[in-house]
């Protein structure tokens, strides 16, 4: 093991680095990991029904409207990455723009989101895979489900420790399976629609893309639901130092990822609506009985005997995302260790695989402990933790957007390009993410929101806000230790700190 020191590198390499593998990912590999991180098939399966219940026929435009602020945020990420290509992403950028405490909280919120989603993805993958075994009784045994979920996290952590190239190759295979399944579903739906076998054939209408025909409150709910299924594209930026041409490729991959996701989400939504219709009974997409997984109900009808392939692909989608989620989470805490925002052991790198060892292992261990603990306490709280994840995501996306504006404040009006890509778009993205955070927090306060409550407050609010407040406490505790002084006194990381990424 070796512990990188800020500003230093082996004598044979004049470029300062953190010790990560250099130039392992190209545009394609980076994009694959970005798409896989979003778990596109599972995300759409778990969200589409609720979006249609909230907004009806205007579901396609809800996904489009949710994409816009994500694209604006992606522009902010791209601009910041071009100037500061660092695996710490928002942690590093916020610390440079606003100072150490804002940076620390940004890094903490990324870690929180990663752990929460890993636990829930492990649960989903475990249940789906066990359902396909035998008569389904295994999926109803909480002990077996929890044990298998813990094994899934452990295996994905091990894969992440083996090196980014191994993870990339695995993700390519898993992503191909997901898109083959989605393509087969689309073909089956279209054949059913044009062949007359669809349960409720519904012709495409331009009204589906008119947001003014939807109920205002419903559209707000739909956009908030759709917004967070785009999350994951920023994994491209967390791997920036392991990517070829780190100043440009990760930003391009992030933008390409969001566009591919937009086409995927809108395209499948339209096709599903054409095939199953918008009814609230039977196979209708607005039927609350199967709103949490619309594809399982439609797979057998649209794909016939190959319907099982779509069910497996949903499990693979969750499995794939659980591995890619480890990457940005571990590299975020790794960067915090490098810059002394966390103890030095977080900065340890394997000499063989060039991956953060302690950070990756700790992320996996914490996810296993949290997942197993929540299953012992209450599966309702575990489900609420997934709902609360949006707060952490909106929090660090807003910080990244505002950091872009403030970091580049001296050049905002130097050109038309700077004006739009460093001021207008990031500012709009930051304002939208701030609104999403506040509105989501207000919604989560309702005791009827989610699956649990405590003292008249929704469990999702308690988990979401509580986890961020825990970060504030831990930040001040760490600030009491001598090892943190260089960071909090802006010596190890400030606006002028040298970028530790290879050209």
TrEMBL record:
Signal peptide: none annotated. It is found in: Cell membrane. It is a multi-pass membrane protein. It comes from the Bacteria. The chain crosses the membrane at residues 25-42, 48-72, 106-131, 143-161, 173-196, 208-233, 253-275, 295-319, 355-373, 385-408, 420-438, 458-481. Keywords: Cell membrane, Membrane, Transmembrane, Transmembrane helix. It holds the Pfam family AA_permease_2. GO terms for molecular function: transmembrane transporter activity. GO terms for cellular component: plasma membrane. InterPro entries: AA/rel_permease1, APC_superfamily. PANTHER family: AMINO ACID PERMEASE, AMINO ACID TRANSPORTER-RELATED. This is Amino acid transporter. It comes from Agromyces hippuratus.
């Amino acid at each position: 093991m070796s512990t990188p020191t800020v500003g230093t590198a082996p004598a044979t390499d004049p470029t300062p680095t953190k010790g990560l593998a250099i130039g392992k990912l190209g545009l394609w590999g980076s994009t694959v990991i970005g798409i896989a991180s979003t778990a596109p098939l599972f995300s759409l399966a778990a969200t589409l029904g609720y979006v249609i219940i909230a907004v009806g026929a205007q579901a396609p435009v809800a996904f489009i409207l949710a994409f816009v602020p994500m694209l604006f945020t992606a522009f902010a990420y791209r601009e910041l990455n071009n100037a500061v290509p660092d695996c710490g992403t928002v942690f590093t950028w916020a610390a440079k723009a606003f100072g150490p405490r804002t940076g620390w909280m940004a890094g903490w919120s990324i870690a929180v989101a990663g752990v929460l989603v890993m636990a829930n993805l492990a649960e989903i993958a475990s249940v789906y895979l066990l359902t396909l075994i035998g008569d389904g009784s295994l999926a109803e045994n909480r002990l077996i489900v929890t044990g298998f979920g813990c094994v899934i996290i452990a295996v994905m952590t091990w894969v992440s420790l083996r090196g980014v190239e191994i993870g990339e190759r695995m993700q390519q295979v898993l992503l191909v399976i997901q898109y083959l399944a989605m393509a087969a579903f689309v073909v089956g739906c279209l054949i059913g629609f044009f062949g007359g076998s669809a349960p409720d054939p519904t012709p495409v209408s331009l009204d589906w893309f008119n947001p003014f025909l939807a109920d205002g409150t419903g559209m707000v709910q739909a956009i908030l639901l759709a917004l967070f299924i785009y999350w994951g594209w920023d994994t491209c930026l967390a791997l920036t130092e392991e990517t070829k041409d780190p100043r440009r490729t990760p930003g391009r991959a992030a933008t390409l990822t969001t566009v591919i996701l937009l086409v995927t989400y809108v395209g499948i939504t339209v096709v599903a609506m054409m095939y199953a219709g918008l009814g609230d009974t039977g196979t209708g997409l607005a039927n609350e009985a199967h709103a949490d997984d619309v594809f399982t109900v439609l797979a057998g009808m649209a794909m016939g005997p190959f319907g099982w392939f779509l069910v497996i692909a949903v499990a693979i989608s969750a499995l794939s995302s659980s591995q890619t989620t480890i990457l940005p989470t571990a590299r975020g805490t790794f960067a915090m260790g490098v810059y002394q925002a966390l103890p030095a052991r977080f900065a340890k790198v394997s000499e063989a695989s060039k991956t953060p060892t302690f950070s990756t292992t700790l992320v996996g261990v914490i996810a296993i402990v949290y997942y197993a603990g929540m299953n012992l306490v209450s599966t309702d709280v575990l489900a609420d933790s997934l709902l609360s994840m949006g707060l952490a995501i909106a929090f660090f996306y807003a910080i990244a957007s505002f950091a872009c504006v403030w970091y580049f404040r001296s050049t905002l009006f130097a050109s038309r390009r700077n004006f739009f890509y460093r001021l207008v778009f990031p500012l709009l993205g930051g304002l939208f993410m701030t609104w999403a955070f506040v509105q989501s927090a207000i919604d989560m306060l309702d005791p009827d929101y989610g699956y649990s409550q405590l003292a008249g407050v929704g469990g999702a609010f308690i988990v979401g806000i509580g986890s961020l407040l825990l970060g504030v406490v831990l930040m001040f505790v760490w600030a009491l230790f001598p090892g943190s002084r260089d960071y909090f006194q802006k010596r190890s990381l400030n606006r002028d700190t040298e970028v530790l990424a290879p050209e």
